[in-house]
């Protein structure tokens, strides 16, 4: 019943072309150019660049618009092996409270459902958000994650985040999990930000 009445109460249009009843239609999602990034020993699969409809969908997600969770999860699921374990890189509690949800956690749960896998939500984000930080400041940051109290760390996992900029956040999370006995098989992200482009959470450019 809810699925039938939701479009009437909360109408949604594709952020790319205006198609009805979906935040990002398959046609616009297909414009994303996937890429593979190597961060030391960590291989990261990005569904697209931080540009065009994908960028607009990520920004809308960061503003708390849930309509983009399902289409972005569908886009990410193409790069995730079936029956695996996903570990989302949570944002800070303050950011999650502002948005009404944690985008990485919500995406990981949806992708796991699509790929018959599991979501191991074992990480906590510490410290302030990276909005407005320059490239050097991002790379210098350390210790941004801790394990949730009582968390059971999976033996093997793939990290999941919305955007990769310098890769420092992914490295930090991978280091913690590895030290906790988890074999980190790689990472998947919605988009990668190229050097010199706008940062995902601010209007400064990386230099």
Could you explain the architecture of this structure?
The chain has 207 residues and is α/β, with parallel strands linked by helices. It has one domain (28-192): Rossmann fold. The protein is 33% helix and 21% strand. It contains 8 helices and 8 strands; from the N terminus they run H-H-E-E-H-H-E-H-H-E-E-H-E-E-H-E. The chain has helices spanning 2-9, 26-29, 52-62, 69-77, 93-99, 103-114, 135-140, 168-179; strands spanning 35-39, 42-49, 85-88, 118-119, 123-125, 145-147, 156-164, 183-192. The strands form 2 sheets. A 6-stranded mixed sheet has the order 1-2-8-7-3-4, sandwiched between helices. It has a two-stranded antiparallel sheet with strand order 5-6. Strand 1 (35-39) and strand 2 (42-49) form a beta hairpin. The longest helix is centred in the middle third of the chain and has 12 residues, at 103-114. The radius of gyration is 16 Å and the shape is globular. Residues 132-140 and 200-207 have low confidence and may be disordered.
Radius of gyration: 16 Å
Beta fraction: 15-25%
- Number of β-strand runs: 8
Under CATH, the topology can be stated as Rossmann fold
CATH C-level class: Alpha Beta
The biggest sheet, with number of strands, parallel, antiparallel or mixed sense and barrel status, is: 6 strands, mixed
Terminus-to-terminus distance: 50 Å
SSE topology string: HHEEHHEHHEEHEEHE
Strand order of the largest sheet: 1-2-8-7-3-4
Overall 3D form: globular
On the 0 to 100 scale, the average pLDDT is 86
CATH architecture: 3-Layer(aba) Sandwich
Structural class: alpha/beta
Helix fraction bin: 25-40%
What number of structural domains do the residues give?
A: 1
The count of helical stretches stands at: 8
Low-confidence stretches: 132-140, 200-207
